[in-house]
Amino acid sequence: MMQRFLELEVDENGKEKATVLEDKDNYKLFSSARFNLKVMENKKFVKTHFGQYPIIEINFLCSANVTSKSDAVNVCRRAISRAFKQHRYLYESKLSPLKDDEKEDCEQWCGKFTYKGIPDDEVIEGLGCLADYLNKFHKRKVFLLVDEYDSIISKALYDVQNADPETELKELEKAASFAIEVIGYALKNFSKIFKGAFITGILDVGGVSISTLLGNVLRRQFGTKNLCQDFYGFTEDEVCTLFNRFAVTEELREEAKAKYNGYFNGSKQRLYNPQSIVQFLGNLSLGEGALQNYWQQSGYIHNMYKLLEEGSVRRLLFKLLQGVKEDFQFKLRSLDLKDLKSLHNILVNQNLTCYPEIVVRFLVSLGYLTYSFDDHKLQIPNAELIDEITERLRHYFFESSGINSELDEDCSASFSKLTILCDEGESLPKFNEELANFQNSITCLLQRSKLIDPLNEATLQSIITLMCSKAGFLFGNEIIIPKHGTKVDIVLFNDKSGIIMELKCGSNTVQDAFKQIFEKRYYNVFTNKKYFDKRKKSPSLSFVIAMHVDSGNKASVMCLRREDVIHVLDGLQLDARESSLEDRIEIAVNSMGERFINTCCESAILGS
């Protein structure tokens, strides 16, 4: 977009196509009544800058491995060659004022194979030379657009390896520095011929050894208060305008807002992921089916799963995955060389002795987390990202634990059917049949998977949580019950429904697990306003489920639906029918104790 607005439109000989502003092809595009673009309202700005500058557009995105400085040089070589090829007229046009050796230089950069022979030191100078040649040809200042400036750095973080740790970190520094050195050389040595430059990427890397070369570049970091803060992401007003234009229904727009917003700029505004909003609008014909996850991975988070195995970072990320905001004090500053080395050690060498702040800043840069400087709260931005990270965590955990992914899909599908049958109020026989299927699926999963460690309650809790959350629920583990100080193993919830699960292994029975739900007052979990108000959720009890796995990894499951609990309460002729279900259960437990609990146990559905 910026290129089309700023670029001097020329023909194949480098001659300006049109001198009258209204005759320029790009101007006709921007001034179209179809788009009604706000920028065109600023007549003075448009007249001053529209179509005035030769543009260098360079993209350092790389998919190849960057294991050394040599690889980084090759990526830059290709990127500079592509930038030169956009201006072949520099050496092909008869109008070119360049000297013969300068034309030969351009031709070498544009050649299919010849650019590969350009020495490393000339690669550093390549971008600056292109700017110089464009300035000489057009006698105008040049504008530089750089995208993915950090791509080489991101790749080097994972790819650089050496048997000698000191040599490895030095090679990382050289590889990570090279693209910045190329950009910095051009901007520092040819500063007078540049009208401006716009450099964008994901990671804000400001501390590598040659970063002084970018000393004349103003840094505008996402999430901080600056002039650019409203232009990275769609604001609330912009999303409302789009939803009105596309006639999105009220119900669907509220769900979309909840799913795709969540980032913060420096002025406390929430921002929406533009990619996701655009994809959602493109799929509106699917109705609710348009509410998919459109997140595009911007970093190699799969290696970050090692963080979840231990320490403060693991605990923090697990809390965030439950949809909570966490207090976290830190400064959103650029990553320096020391930070890159720490990240490299944790991502590649699995050295977990790093400061959580570095990892948090890294994940915020990649867009997996967002931070509000107003209340110092850290969170996963939205439901889309919670689903994305949970899915990646699921794959990692099941692979590392030896869980069969196909059998996991069967279990997840069965649990999803259970929740749907309960919501739709299906008959008891049909629900009972699916509960038995769920029990058998769990047994099959545990017995046919190659579990790396012996099954215990902690491992079982992780398996069941990750598997059941796939049915579209947020989850909580070890959630404290107000007043009683007890903790629920697993809570699954959304805007309306809540599910309580208690798990047991070994000598206990499924009946023991089921009775514990009532004995320890787990049914009161949804009155924990401190937990649920943070998530802006108000679920009510949908059903309780107990599970026991014996030494042979055979599962037993018991379940009691909301309507079954109400039937038990009515049968016992307890008063307070106007109270909430949780309050009625509390009265029953306090007044009748074992009699009520045993009646619930007798009424529960036992998988068979």
UniProtKB/TrEMBL annotation:
Domain of life assignment: Eukaryota
InterPro entries, per the entry: AAA-ATPase-like_dom
Domain AAA-ATPase-like positions: 41-210
Pfam families: AAA-ATPase_like
Name under which the protein is recorded: AAA-ATPase-like domain-containing protein
Organism the protein comes from: Tribolium castaneum (Red flour beetle)
